[in-house]
Amino acid sequence: MKMLKLTLCHLYPELLNLYGDTGNILTLVKRCQWRGIDVNVINHNIGDKTDFKDVDIFFIGGGADGNLGIACNDINSIKPQLEFAIEQDRVLLAICGGYQLLGKYYKGKRDTVDGLGLLDFYTEAADKYFVGNIVVDTGDYYLVGFENHMGRTYLNGLSPLGHVISGFGNNGKDKTEGVRYKNVIGTYLHGPLLPKNPKLCDEIISIALKNKYNIEDLQELDDSLEIKARQHTLKSINNKFISFA
Amino acid sequence: MRRIIAIVIAKIVIALAKLMGYGGSNIGGELALRICPDILDWFGSQVKEKIILVTGTNGKTSTNNMIYSIIRQSGHTCVCNKLGANLDSGLISAFINSSNLTGRIDADYASLEVDEASLAKVMAQLKPNIIVFTNLFRDQLDRYSEIDAILDKIKASLEKAQDAVLLINSDEPSLVSLGCSVAHTKYYYGIETQIDMGSMDLAKDNVFCKLCGERLDYAHYFYGQLGHYTCTKCHFNRPIPDFKAFLQDFEHKRELTVIGSNGFKVVRDFNTNDTYSIYNTLAAISVGALLGNTAEIVERGLENYRPQVGRMERFYIGKPITLNLAKNPVGFNESMKIVRQDMRSKVVAIGVNDLPQDGRDVSWLWDTNFEILLEIDDTIVNYTVFGRRRYDMALRLKYAGIDESKLTISETNEDAIDNVVNTRSDAAYILLNYSLLFETQKILKGRNEDVKTDSLPSVS
């Protein structure tokens, strides 16, 4: 059988890597490698002439406000390629600042920054940070993570990634968390997201394999440590949540 | 009157806390602050000569204690928060410890380390003469949000202290950018010799020019974002240090020479492994010189300096055990580089808590290069993880690629130390973050077999 190989593109790792974001890349890579799937990670930094045509999974993380501004200028130049990839059902995972960047705008304390406008949501800065552990129900499984953001995101009718069970989520009001459009996943969860949410990580790998090789089933891994880690965090939030692991 | 009540109550509480074995506590100072909100102002106004503040992410405690030793050597009295309690309440506790019941202190100097996020609060009451900046790394993100925000905060607080002299690490671009943006009198200290500090991994969040946004170009790189840098686009570059450190390596030692103005020159021997504390020593020597001390007094002061709890602290319980505090990615990376140099069979225990003083967000574990340990994995017989975030740490090690059969997850600190002691090996290292330090150190002290434990100055 032919060796399976996926291509991962980390957008602006030098600028947008505020909250352990490389942990998400590491988790994607390891969970592929443990299944014998080869992974090629492309780092796309400012000014790079990257060929995105073979990218199966895009990742964009969070960053300090100043760095987000720098990234924003460059990312506009690759917007058509990203739009094309999204319509081709490629995966785009965007966390925190990277998530906000996908929307129409981010209205900060000083000025408003235009987003990429790939999706029709918007974000406004508030005075207080939403900080703490968060639990989200996606319908298929529960996500466990940590959020830390000043932005309040309003989805304008788009589908959320899930509903908040404990924590704040997009805006602390409507109980939504993140966004899901085709295979674009935006979320405020870091901690980072994927190590403690192997089901989401495997869903991403599955989509990529389906797109590229039309393979449906994914080999099971021993996730007992991941489950214990989830149980431990869930228990620390609320004893009743332990069954969500 | 309120002041006296505050001091008496705080003194009783501090004595009780000490009796119960809680070191480095803020609680006495916190009470005093509640009862008498302007108490720090009152204490500060009694300092006869100068107030020195030491701030930054890493190296505050070691630097501050060295400065204290130098001041004591020069024959002066000095108030100092030696154990590293560095919020406003901790500073108040330090003053209360040196005061009589009416709140009178007899201090020529105060040398105080201040948490970088508390600087504004502290400077509303204390009028510092010298502020020492060590470095700014990512640390405890939920409390400090991000480095740019901290820089803004520090800049705003500096406006209240126009007369303060700033002593800044010239090799640290984010701090130098801060220096460029204020009108204060500034002195810089930096390492001139391009030594290898074992870091190839550039900490990438700070390598962009704070003035124009261009990527900084490094002619040499030490660790974190520290190095010899220039911006290729604007005029921003590393200032020529007023206090220059030169290093020369011999077979068993490393010699540090610090050159100041007017022929000021201090020479110190270092352990070759110990790159991390060069900056701390350099900063302390620079303060010693700025205070007008002779090189001889500075050298003798440093001789008398003893590192504080958990800075490469050595114990012996069936085998040598080294305890080291590490609070953030740079601190952990530097600690692990020290472990990497030890080729004996060993247990490595890592403790991670997420209490407010540690930072509740532990995503930094994934910004830390635990893969360093993988390079010596064949010498590590067991990885022990403990603390409130032991499972996050366990996962981090799993994804770093360690063999899960070598992993022990300990429910309590006692269990962790039992496992470290009982697992057969020639040595052990315990790396942990702040709120785990004092309890762990207490257990180790209680079981220690060698009364002559020594310590090396290192990561703090």
Which keywords apply here?
heterodimer, A: 245 residues, alpha/beta, Rossmann fold, six-stranded mixed sheet, 6 helices, globular, B: alpha/beta, UDP-N-acetylmuramoyl-L-alanine:D-glutamate ligase, 2 domains, nine-stranded mixed sheet, 16 helices, disordered C terminus
Describe the structure.
The complex is a heterodimer of chains A (245) and B (460). Chain A is built from six helices and twelve strands. With 245 residues, chain A is α/β, with parallel strands linked by helices. In chain A, strands 2-1-3-4-12-11 form a six-stranded mixed sheet. The longest helix of chain A is centred in the last third of the chain and has 16 residues, at 198-213. With 460 residues, chain B is of the alpha/beta class. Chain B has two domains: 2-303, 3-Layer(aba) Sandwich (UDP-N-acetylmuramoyl-L-alanine:D-glutamate ligase), CATH 3.40.1190; 313-447, Mur ligase, C-terminal domain (Protein-Tyrosine Phosphatase, Chain A, Alpha-Beta Complex). Helix content of chain B is 35%, strand content 21%. In chain B, helix 1 (2-19) packs antiparallel against helix 2 and helix 10 crosses helix 11. Chain B has helices spanning 2-19, 27-35, 39-44, 60-73, 88-97, 119-123, 141-144, 147-158, 173-180, 278-290, 295-303, 329-340, 371-374, 390-400, 413-422, 434-447; strands spanning 50-55, 78-80, 109-114, 130-133, 165-169, 186-191, 216-223, 226-231, 243-249, 254-259, 265-270, 313-316, 320-325, 346-351, 380-386, 407-409, 427-432. At the A-B interface, helix 1, helix 2, strand 7, strand 8 and helix 6 of A face helix 8 and helix 14 of B.
